[in-house]
Amino acid sequence: MSRETVSGKSQDRSNWHQTPIEERIVLANKLLVLHPRFREAVALLKRCHESPARSGEPLCGAILGASGVGKTSVVDHYARLHPREETETATRQPVLRVTLQPDATPKGIAADILLALEDPAWCNGTVQTLTNRAVKLLKRCDVQLIVLDEFHHLFDLDRLKVMTKAAQWLKVLIVNTRIPIVVCGMPEAEHVLRAEHTERRFKERLTLHCFDWRTNLGRREFCGMLKKLDDSLPLAQASGLAEQDLAGRFYLGSRGVPDYLMTLIRGGLAEALMRGNERIEQADLARVYETKLSQQRVLGEQTNPFIGQLDKSALDRVQAADKHRSAGVGLTPRSASRRQRRSTVGELLGGR
Q1: N or C end of the chain: which has fewer CB within 10 A?
Q2: Does residue 254 lie in a domain region?
Q3: CA 107 to CA 62: how far, in whole Å?
Q4: Contact, 280 vs 259, CB < 8 A?
Q5: How many CB atoms neighbour CB 349 within 10 A?
Q6: Per the domain annotation, does 336 fall within a domain?
């Protein structure tokens, strides 16, 4: 596994005794592990961001993956590397993050961009006036990269069709502004990227996956992540998070979802500090799992993995959450039932 870098406060562990509990909890909440796949996603954003200067043409891309795999963390990290800057005439925003609303339309996307640019009249006007304002503001604010989050909203799950007009509008925006765009979303956004108006534009693509336990490489990567986290936590003692028994419990308690893993780590740290301990114990993790994760759908079928003996048979069978994800997970009942039949190519790529 490639060497990982951790963003956080680094010092002799014994000195953490002198830091207030509240400050340590804040530091843990900001802790970020730049593992190899995280680095790949950051590199994709960088390539797209710098493409106009290198080749004169905007290079667009996509970062896809199930909920909790780290897409938001990647974008937040990259945006922090290119912060907003107040000038005499405008707010300079090198990286503009835009969240797309459900049932995306050209007018809706234009309004979402204006909202991200803090236009007070972001929703007032026709699609043409909103588009014109968005183009002007993007130039005025010196936007160099647009990140469109929730890109799967351009795919209508109920009707199993791409929102064609919205995809066409997006293509025209790229041509007119020459600003590279990176889209982020759930795996079903792949249908939009295969559509006629977007396939050629979004050449840089990356899918982020959950950590895997079924392979030796996957286990090493997961345990390496736990070791780096353990070394970087603002605690005066190491917690042995990567030890074999506890690592297996962590995997059952997270199913490889980075967001769930960080919930356990951060919550365990807070529990330990609140009881005056300088290391995370299994009982701390049991409480965090019970209060914060036990009701999650992908985890709800198992008992608390931090209580009692490790269920090695369950660990042998466990799959990563994104592999476990079925057609109905995260969809409306209507769309889930409709996806039981095989869709035609025409339905998936435009519904015409």
Answers
A1: C
A2: yes
A3: 22
A4: no
A5: 18
A6: no
Cα separation, 108 vs 153, whole angstroms: 11
Specify the DSSP class assigned to residue 101: P
DSSP character string of 51-66: HHHHHSS--EEEEE-S
Which pLDDT score, from 0 to 100, does residue 325 have? 52
Query: Comparing C-alpha atoms, which of 108, 88, 86, 89 is closest to residue 99?
Result: 108
| CA pair distance 270, 141, nearest whole angstrom | 40
Q: Do residues 137 and 120 share a domain?
A: yes
Task: Compute CA distances 265 → 124, 229, 316, whole Å.
Answer: 45, 8, 23
Question: In the structure encoding, which two tokens stand for residue 179, read together?
Answer: 């600003």
Distance CA 132, CA 122 (A): 12
Distances (CA, A) of 11 to 16, 149, 271: 8, 36, 22
Residue-number span of the structural domain to which 228 is assigned: 213-324
Three-state SS at 3: coil
Q: Residue 352: CB partners within 8 Å, gap ≥ 6?
A: 164, 346
Q: In this predicted model, what pLDDT tens digit does every residue of 56-102 receive, in sequence order?
A: 899 999 999 999 999 999 999 999 999 999 888 878 999 999 999 99
Q: Which residue has the higher pLDDT, 116 or 331?
A: 116
Q: For residues 252 and 81, give the distance between their C-alpha atoms in angstroms, rounded to a whole number.
A: 34
Rg of the chain over all Cα atoms, to the nearest angstrom: 22
- The residues, ordered by sequence, that sit 6+ positions from 175 with a Cβ below 8 Å of its Cβ are none
